[in-house]
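so i finally got all the pieces together for this one. its three components total, 1083 residues if u count the protein bits. some of the lines might not be protein, just check the labels. i wanna see the whole assembly predicted at once instead of chain by chain like last time, that was a mess tbh
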Amino acid sequence: MVHQHFSLVPELTVLENLCLGSGWRRFDRARERARMAATAERFAIDVPFDALVETLSVGERQKVEILRCLVQGPEIVVLDEPTAVLPPGEIDALLGLIRRMAETGKAILLVTHKLAEIERVADRITVLRRGRVTLQAAGREVGRKALASAIVGDAAAGIEMTAGRGSRRIVRRQSGVAVPPAALMLDGIVLLDRLGSRRVDNLTLIVAAGEIVGVAGVEGNGQSELALALSGLMPFAGGRYFVADTELTAATPAMVSAAGVGVIPEDRHALGCILGMAVDENIFLGALAEYRLGPFVNRKAMRQATGELIQRFDIRCEGPTAPFASLSGGNQQKVVLAREITLNTRRLLVAAQPTRGLDIGATRTTYGHIQSAARDGAGVLLVSSELDDLMAICDRIVVMYRGRIIGEQAAGAYDRAALGGLMAGHA
Amino acid sequence: MELARILRRASTSSAGAVLIALLAGLLLMAVLAPSLPNALAAFARGAFGTTYAVGASVNRAAVLALVGLGFILAFRANLTNIGGEGQLAMGGMVAAAVALKTDVAGLPFGLAIVLPALAGACAGGLWAGLAGWLRVRRGTNEVISTLLLSFIALWLVYWSVHSDALLRQPRTSATSLPESADIPNGAMIGMLVPPMHQGIVVVILLVALVHLTMTRTVWGMRLQAIGLNAASAKRAGLSIPRLTIGAMLASGALAGLAGAFMIQGEQYNLKAGFSSGYGIDGLVVGLLARGSAPTVLVFALLFGFLRSGGIGMEIGAGVPSAVVLTLQGLVILAVAGMEFLRLRQARSLP
Amino acid sequence: MTDTILVVLAASTIRLAIPLLFAALGELVSEKAGLLNLSLEGMMLAAAFGGALGCFASGSPFVGLVVALACSTLVAGLQGLFSIVLRANQIVSGIGLNIAVLGLTTIGARALFGRDAGFTIPGFGKLAIPGFSDLPFFGPVLFAQSGFVYAAPAVALLMALLLYRTTPGLALRAAGDEPRAVDKSGASIAAIRWLAILVTGLAAGLGGAVYSLADIHTFTENMTSGAGYLALAAVIFGRWRVVGTIVASLVFGAAASLQFQLPALGVDFLPPALLIMMPYVLALLAVSGLVGRQSPPRALALPFHR
């Protein structure tokens, strides 16, 4: 099995990595090298055996990973989103390799959401959505449209949220009226991951005050990195980031919050909260300046304010001082929401997968709060892989694929199938 | 209530660890002593048999408590400061230097005592702060850096008392030892009940202060935040570099003050190796206390009396005080081992 | 005149560096596998004690050596129990073992050797290699040392071969950087680390035995007095490479020998304390990345949970 996250040891050479796990035999370099070379040749994989893995590009590392898998002579090879990290040039090489592997009699299971690749190599296709099979057919027979709709599903299974849309204040250009600065302006931003791959590639986006812009796309196309960068946690390798009039390209998280940006992070346990602390502490950790009596924490005021938020956001917990870890997932998310919307969000709210893991009720209230934030004048950037939700509340939807925006639709003209196709890479 | 919480904390793994080690120690004593009751009597005498013994034990406890407090403060921010011995040494050395080489002795209002002590605290603080800076700027693991700095500090003290240009006492005869001169009377900490000096009052105040700081202040809460989840804390706007260095500065300052107390309160001059393992013991006290300042005091007293008892046992019954040393080692091992049980327990909870 | 001084310096450099070398190379193997053994000091001290004990009881230094190795391996085994099986904090358990070993060896020395401060045991004498030992300079420096010195290059070579030319060595190096990768490939991290720590125990035992069986033929309380920590510093300064560790040990040995010889040379301005602390300063510079780039194994001191 070839995973998305490689398990190679960077400090060792390719050959050494390939030989890991060959038991307690004496390490006969020559013999192992010959064995590896033979397999590599059979599949026409070209890797430098004596190079340190840390010097290799992502594509080359993947080749090593695949070779390691093949050397064991498996009957079935499973590849999990193999092209997620590859630049376009290397995808062809990989697909060629996959076909060669199949030609030698191996069964290949390719897990991917990229339509283009499916079309090129798949003999048979199975589509899974929400844990169920929605399509099973021979590769050549299925058209793009059918594929796309199998992936994103049919309409109407999602949230009905028609109310409230009309009353939002979307500032439109009117002659003679001063236009307030955009809530968010991203100009050609580039984000790189640890290995140097471009996760966000020259992205430009503008969100007006009061507008809800949805970012659709299958996870792994740069949305996570985008949200991190907007929080000030990831450096920009290129481009500029503005909120209202303030440039935040090199801002720290504190500066970002001070500029009026609230962020609901994708992984709330890693970034959104501190499990070992209480609810009130989690909410006001960043705002202690306002809740202090000299050097001391003003616990009473904190508890009181937390109590109000608990009411307003319907958070089910034992009280303001309840340990955060004792709350259910949905209520934890409500705490994060409460904090970000009331404390930080003045100009912009970035919500990354905000309803993940929430039940229908919690989802509804979450979107309700997001909409009211927009009503109060903030711009909202809503990143979600739930197309239905996006279509229900966004004024605009852009689709991210491989770190770029490859398409956009406006409310009132949403075409589900087209969006699905965009999400799967079909521009 | 506070007391209940303290007792509950002490009664979990740490107390269990100490108990196991004490039993093992008793076994050792039984093996080594010609007569166990004799040995135990000598131990008791040495620990609290006379006012002198009690006073000496309390003095020791004061030093251990300070180092332990420093340890738990840094640990709250998930920083493991094992350089207490070195920070203590730096503190003692600088306190002695200020007392000897400047004119503090003549100052009124007790400044003659306070200034060297403060200088010692600063020295210890900077020594630990250096490790904090290295962590922030170069990513150096503070365990390694505080350990190495500890050795460096010990040899700096050695150098200072061997060098005539630094702190060595004037060589009036061929047999004058490489030590510093005695510090002026004005710089010596006053006595409560000799030999117990007033430093213990300061220590009790500091226990309360550290406890308050960690549980009720903004700074304490921020330290806790970065200790639990640095990424989220950063997201919330906390400055990790500033808090890290701050925690290390405070941690080292407490150990430095302990060194000053040793010099100004007990020994009255500087000798090489004066720290004789107090830093390590203080570290153990900190570990056992599991983050609670009042518990630090409890274990500091325990270890202080243990040490005195060990010495008494050696003098009175011929049982080597190394038994106490071994006991301490066993306590540490028991704590390390208990951690495993606690983790296993924690992980099996839903 | 200067000739003799140089010879003495060089000879004592080697003599003082050898125990560090053994211990440091042994520790290198452990750290490459991800284990940090602060108890290295305890292992060496236990070996010094065991060596003296065995030799005292049997009259033969070879028996002493065997007992020394057994003692240090026992301590290593205990450290392994804490680090690998219990997954306890490696720093805390290391310090605990050091203190416990110090206490026990002190008690043991008093009990078994009595208050006789000057007792001696027949130890290993210097082995002059005929012919070579008459060479000018290199003769006394390299060929008139104790047997341990001659064993050192062999041990070093063995370690290097183990780490870089065998499959277990490969797995060992990977275990210190990416234990998950090794675990996935089917090898057992626990087994690898046990192998590593036992190697460390044996090597540290050789180093510790030098003190009581070769250097001074007796045992004194806390005989190793920090040599274990110096060896740890040598691994850091040597940047976790075999050659680097050897060089570091030699440099530290030189510092130690200078510390004794400088006063004899009449060099007053350089305080011996400065030389003693130099190894630690060097190690600190190395670990702060102010001297060179190589960094420690990424999984160092982190307990492995599946």
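The longest helix of chain C spans residues 2-32.
Chain C has a mean pLDDT of 84.
anyway lmk what u think
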